[in-house]
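Hello,

Following up on my earlier ticket. Below are the two sequence lines again, exactly as submitted.
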Amino acid sequence: MLATLHRYLPVLAWARGYNRQLLGSDLIAALIVTVMLIPQSLAYAMLAGMPAQMGLYASILPLLIYALLGTSRTLSVGPVAVASLMTAAAVGKAVEAGYTDAVGAAIALALLSGLILIVMGLLRFGFFANFLSHPVVAGFITASGLIIALSQLKHILGIEAHGENIVDLGLSLFRHLQQINPPTLAIGAGALAFLFWARSGLKAILIGAGLSPYSAATLARTAPVFVVLVTTLAAYLLDLGDRGVALVGEIPRGLPSLQLPAFSVDLWSSLAGSALLISIIGYVESVSVGKTLAAKRRQRIDPDQELIGLGGANVGSAVCAGFPVTGGFSRSIVNFDAGAETQAASIFTALGIALAALFLTPLLYYLPKATLAATIIVAVLSLVDFSILRQAWRYSTSDFIGLVITIAVTLLLGVERGVLSGVLASIALHLYKTSRPHIAIVGNVGGTEHFRNVLRHKVITHPEIISLRVDESLYFANAAYLEDTIYALLAENRDARHVVLMCSAVNEIDLSALETLEAVNQRLTELQLSFNLSEVKGPVMDCLARTRFLQRLNGQVFLTQHQAIEALKETLECTGNDPQAQDTAAGEYKPPGQKESTSGKTKPDQIR
Amino acid sequence: MLATLHRYLPVLAWARGYNRQLLGSDLIAALIVTVMLIPQSLAYAMLAGMPAQMGLYASILPLLIYALLGTSRTLSVGPVAVASLMTAAAVGKAVEAGYTDAVGAAIALALLSGLILIVMGLLRFGFFANFLSHPVVAGFITASGLIIALSQLKHILGIEAHGENIVDLGLSLFRHLQQINPPTLAIGAGALAFLFWARSGLKAILIGAGLSPYSAATLARTAPVFVVLVTTLAAYLLDLGDRGVALVGEIPRGLPSLQLPAFSVDLWSSLAGSALLISIIGYVESVSVGKTLAAKRRQRIDPDQELIGLGGANVGSAVCAGFPVTGGFSRSIVNFDAGAETQAASIFTALGIALAALFLTPLLYYLPKATLAATIIVAVLSLVDFSILRQAWRYSTSDFIGLVITIAVTLLLGVERGVLSGVLASIALHLYKTSRPHIAIVGNVGGTEHFRNVLRHKVITHPEIISLRVDESLYFANAAYLEDTIYALLAENRDARHVVLMCSAVNEIDLSALETLEAVNQRLTELQLSFNLSEVKGPVMDCLARTRFLQRLNGQVFLTQHQAIEALKETLECTGNDPQAQDTAAGEYKPPGQKESTSGKTKPDQIR
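Thanks for your patience. The regenerated structure is below:
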């Protein structure tokens, strides 16, 4: 009972030992994060196509709930770039279908995502996230970053542009290019230039001015806040709103009233797929940030409880009229670097944002949207990393293909299809690879009991024994391939009288593969060849022992390949009067140099 | 050039050596098969919901084309039960959508299936069929057999009934039960009873009457023809048509005119999915029959060329107004047993059916549909085999689950969803299994260099070395699981100072898994533990060598687990002044009896 309580309420773990020193650290971190989050929340609300205040709403209750339920001590939850982009895409579809308005759809999306995450957490389905391979995630984030950056260009230029992929976006931008608003461009380009410079140059200058590296880094991170202040002031003083610069405008003051989102079968079923994708992508992003931060302080996070924590945060976001949230990379890093020790920092941050929603919104009236767009562009371009392309290209073809598919589909057909194609492609590639396993002819490494690939090592082989190792579990997708390979080897090795299949890499034999082995056994029996297995693993042997295969097997199961070859050599010597066997000096090892290896004739495409 | 010709026209292989003796065998076989095929073709046309003559049409040109393009010498191509049922389902959907009539849809389906098969053959995509696991195929055939048998009951009873799954069919039959037509029932039940008895009793009686077992078996196979003759005669003499017995009726005389089916985007795209399923199911059935027969005569078939042969046959069927065809089990067995030596037998069979279409159709006017239904029921019930359930249950849970899903969905939701769920379920189960691989703590088998699972063998372990073997390729789906397992082992083995991962069963490490190994290496470095690999295979090592992982690895890559443990023991002895190491008598083997193995504390669910 108590254990269950502790499992589902990780807050109990840190709240008990809370003290004044931790409080100090957490308060400072909360202050810095709050200042950074105010413009960020507004920016991501704009990216998601939501009214500005929803960004603030999504940064209050979700933080409080995650603080109670989450297992990471320093993860900072709230609106993030990729999830906001996916929200915009999903909401667009639902609004087009006429089910509800954008705000209603976003709230429903947050609720659905939250429920999906909680159910997955209770069922301990965290492993689902494992099916997003590293190249798929990296490619998806990079492509999303590009789309986001491109989608924000319109705010920098002060023009209209729409589209969910780079082609549409690019064309739309190009078509409206003559409508550029010069004051907007001045604000936007200036903000962009300053923010890019702040990333690299500002810190060095601050250190040069005598600040400690830590203070300099922290101060450099507040550059967006500085840009917000300056451009807001400029807009106010120069009346930029009247000169065509889009401003944030009126933001309703106060806190959202808590409410349960309306239930609608049509709306929910149209959003379910998108909610699932947002949940899983958000979860993967969040857990990877959480793991990284936890590892730095030798802490651990519980992936299944994280599902519940993030799910609770999203339900919380829906209840207070927010949109989907997750653990963000940049905000969590700031929180961590600013010295946050526990989730109390997030609780104080939530209070800070709540105060902002209560009192600061009138000051944001003159904030130019171009400034927010500039902060988004600078933030997401740091996510764009094409080095993964080179890395995957060097490492393996299938990883590279999966990556390219993910990036290409995301850029050309949008985020949802992008991540889906990436997952399906990586699963299909994996299945394809395992359906054509590496099969090696093996021979004895002279003077040892080891057997190795004849193509890689100098080994001793025997023309009357086909000794092969299959480097994959045997299952339905590759059973036929193994069968074909064995038959092809038989056709090329007419002298062969024994076949030994070395199973050291076979972790499973499923029913389809068992049928195939039975067929091979029968075929070899008809051809008067023996069929033997060696180095069969315990769990596999357990399975085989439950069938009649072992009784039907015309050869034996040997503990090691060495024992198999020794025993079969003896049989060959005993029946040495067989004319074929005499031809090839049956029963004698050939030294590696002279070997007229049976496997030498095997086609290279079968033996990799 | 010549090789290409030979590859794509297997007929060249057998036509050259054709002689009078082969001609004699083939002619006899063709005669027997023709007699058997006439009622069978009509029956499967009825099952597919097509006019009777289409069954004959589908048994002429397809046979000729397969004879030229197919690699099996004895496979008999034409309408078969399962493909006919799938045709009925697909055609029903297209007709309901209003695109065309049933005949037009069936012809388009045959054309599409043919094109799909040919394209797959040219791309050498035969391996696609491997993703239909044995339990899925077996379960699907069994469930389809049940549906077919149930769907034909209406003809036996002389009532109406519709539905594509057993619930709908059963309810529909039940609702119309009071409309039973007694003369129809008499014919149908009589035919059924005779045919069932002929399967078992007739052959014995014929042998008792002095026939050779071979002649008796052949004669017993013609039982359907006998039933057709008797019931047709009865219907004619007793005027059963006027007494409510449904008869085949007028069949247009003559051969179909060749024509190219009309192209329609809507129709084709609505049929594409069904065509793909029919193609693959038909191909799998056909290849498995072809393989079995070829193996009996030490011949081989080429799976990729088979795609082209079957594809050509289906295009041929479409061109002469037939419906989808494939290589059938029962007809091929009859062909083979009747002594067919080459595809010339099929050419003669096609001629025989053509003659029947030209001259025999008036004689079939009085053939009761109940008789055809009885032949179908007897044929498909021989496909129904629930023993696979017991077999899979005993063998492995995942095979059993895949099988049950296939059978249940096929019975309850119809054939297309059945086979699709089966394929998806077996892939998902396979991925799930490989995502939670078997990970064993291994120890040294005293006196040897072998390392085995501590839970299965008496082995020597060492408290300061975590020595584990992962029995699966490392890829995105299981990388996180391995990481979690290693960290859990670290938490339980506070004395550990070295980790050795034995990779003898690791056939691949993909980029995601590489990232994980890098993370593990970094974590272990921080904890001052060494991370070592052993028995890494050649192809895997090639991949790793292309990255910086091997330079970053804080330990070594050993050729064997034995070398790894020996080397690490020495390090422990050298640094024996470490207090922890002294506690546990570092560097000394413990005999199996006394071992206070570190692995003993490991949770059983992690170490299977």
